[in-house]
From TrEMBL:
ATP binds at residues 219-225. It catalyses: XMP + L-glutamine + ATP + H2O = GMP + L-glutamate + AMP + diphosphate + 2 H(+). This is GMP synthase [glutamine-hydrolyzing]. It is found in: Cytoplasm, Cytosol. Residues 191-388 form the GMPS ATP-PPase domain. GO terms for molecular function: ATP binding; GMP synthase activity. It is an enzyme of class 6 (ligase). Catalyzes the conversion of xanthine monophosphate (XMP) to GMP in the presence of glutamine and ATP through an adenyl-XMP intermediate. It holds the Pfam family NAD_synthase. Its EC number is 6.3.5.2. GO terms for cellular component: cytosol. It comes from Pachysolen tannophilus NRRL Y-2460. Pathway: Purine metabolism; GMP biosynthesis; GMP from XMP (L-Gln route): step 1/1. CDD domains: GATase1_GMP_Synthase (cd01742), GMP_synthase_C (cd01997).
Length: 513
């Protein structure tokens, strides 16, 4: 195992990710980790980049005991400056910030870190730079702007690089990380999803023990389903999945969830039809944030109520709560947060676990979305579900603009169903990151047969994105849009006009509310 100490760079999590791409396992801990408190011995240590300056008061520093481990060390960006700071302090503000691509010149071809990495593009992102070589180090590579783009003390197997090998813009970055992990640290390349499942099941069994029971909410989405299936593999019926129908789910959702999770995957599932409760609380509410709050709070009430009625085999209380938290949700919580050195712990349970005194289990907390999909495939979760687009917790309530009534939900739901059905038929579903129909609270004049109509407008939205922070609208062929528009107007009562949203994010968001 490689230990990654995180100094808070926006790229830190990618280091772990890249290592896993060649089957090397790594664990990330805050840069302030006390080495003597580690319960395992790393085969090598990577110090990440970070937004600070090593010479400033209050900036984070690593426990010097990492040098006593006697294992290879690689410092990236801030991590390299930290190594230099510890070994001679030759770090200062660069005359220019360097951000973007640069060409790497390897000066010392014999350096094990740079096997097959010469003269390629690397990605720089730094304001500070080395002004002199730290004691015991030599220059291994340069770039136009960085005379010390890479340094090494090969006798101690300590390496520093100014650029970021973990981002894909560094063309040979993966080779470099592989050189470090496999050739220099000599870690074995045995991380596979199959043995992830095996170790995770063992870990869950040990944590939960012989008798304790676990609950978890499932939404019909990929993360919660994969987490629930994994839990079922580990402890069978002692895991209780709860699906709450909040009245603003997609068409046929409840029936499908029942069929897939309960009948298909053998998950011990309780379905709660709470649509009326949610819709009555949403009556008269038009503000998007209020809608979100109402749905979130009502969900907690309903979930807790159902959970309290679940009978465990030995009559004791449920002890654990399963959450399908993924790695990107965790990143924030483990990063070093400024000079105050407070480290947030992750809680997206909205007060649930505190009220219920449940212990959290998060079996997916090390995985990225595409890895969860891969895991789902291995666990025999149907392909349709594994590749499903994300769906917001507040559901169709934030896709019915204005007041949410059962009639309005029905219109939005039917239009959405047709849109998605056509996307799937056209073979475009996987190319698109998310697609849906929103119902606008305006009426527009139309004509059908000889009749004048005066009905509502549907806005279709389809986007492509990698991280949902920025997104672009998907370019359909005109023929496709024509067909969807015609079907919606003909088949959905109450809609007289269909539009397609051609705004990117930013400035727009993905959802309309
Ligand atoms: P926006 O609209 O913020 O959406 O650009 C980005 C992604 O987040 C989803 N989204 C939500 N998901 N609760 C959720 O669980 C919410 O309140 C919520 N709002 C937006 C949205 O569907 C998109 O995938």
């Amino acid at each position: 195992t490689i230990l990654v100490l995180d100094f808070g760079s926006q790229y830190s999590h990618l280091i772990i990710r890249r290592l896993r791409e060649f089957n090397v396992y790594a664990e990330m801990l805050p840069c302030t980790q006390v080495i003597s408190e580690l319960s395992w011995k790393p085969a090598g240590v990577i110090l990440s980049g970070g937004p600070y300056s090593v010479y400033q008061d209050g900036s984070p520093h690593v426990d010097h005991d990492i040098f006593k481990l006697g294992v290879p060390i690689l410092g990236i960006c801030y991590g390299m400056q930290e190594l230099a700071w510890i070994n001679g302090k030759g770090v200062g503000r660069g005359d220019k910030r360097e951000y973007g691509p640069a060409t790497l010149n390897v000066e010392d071809q014999s350096c094990a870190l740079f096997k097959d990495v010469d003269h390629s593009q690397v990605w720089m992102s730094h304001g500070d730079k080395l002004q002199s070589l730290p004691v015991g180090f030599k220059t291994v590579a340069t770039s136009d702007n960085s005379p010390f783009a890479a340094i090494a003390d090969e006798s101690k197997q300590i390496y520093g690089i100014q650029f970021h090998p973990e981002v894909t813009h560094t063309i040979k970055g993966k080779n470099l990380l592989k050189n470090f992990a496999v050739n220099i640290c000599k870690v074995s390349q045995n991380w596979t999803m199959e043995n992830f499942i095996e170790t995770e099941i063992k870990r869950i069994r040990k944590l939960v023990g012989e008798t304790a029971e676990v609950i978890g909410a499932v939404s019909g989405g990929v993360d919660s389903t994969v987490a629930a299936k994994l839990m079922t593999e580990a402890i069978g019926d002692r895991f209780h999945a709860i699906y709450v129908d909040n009245g603003v789910m997609r068409k046929n959702e409840t029936v499908t969830v029942k069929k897939t999770l309960d009948e298909g995957l053998g998950i011990n599932l309780t379905v709660v039809d709470a649509g009326d409760i949610f819709l009555s609380k949403l009556k008269g509410i038009t503000d998007p944030e209020k809608k979100r709050k109402i749905i979130g709070n009502t969900f907690i009430d309903v979930f807790e109520d159902v959970a309290s009625k679940i009978k465990t085999k030995d009559g004791s209380d449920i002890e654990f709560l399963l959450q399908g938290t993924l790695y990107p949700d965790v990143i924030e919580s483990i990063s070093f947060k400024g000079p105050s050195q407070t480290i947030k712990t992750h809680h997206n349970v909205g007060g649930l676990s505190e009220n219920m005194k449940l212990k959290l289990i998060e079996p997916l907390r090390e995985l990225f979305k595409d890895e969860v999909r891969h895991l789902g495939e291995i666990l025999n979760i149907p392909e349709d579900l594994v590749w499903r687009h994300p769906f917001p917790g507040p559901g169709i309530a934030i896709r019915v603009l204005g007041e949410v009534t059962p009639e309005q939900v029905k219109i939005a739901r039917e239009a959405d169903y047709i849109f998605i059905e056509e996307i799937k038929k056209a073979g475009l579903y996987r190319q698109i990151s998310q697609a849906f129909a929103a119902l606008l609270p305006v009426k527009s004049v139309g004509v059908m047969g000889d009749q004048r109509t005066y009905e509502q407008v549907i806005a279709l939205r389809a986007i492509e994105t990698t991280d949902f922070m920025t997104a672009d609208w998907f370019v359909f062929e005109a023929k496709f849009l024509k067909k969807v528009a015609s079907r919606i107007v003909n088949e959905v009562d109450g809609v007289a006009r269909v539009t397609y949203d051609i705004t990117s994010k930013p400035p727009a968001t993905v959802e309309w509310e």
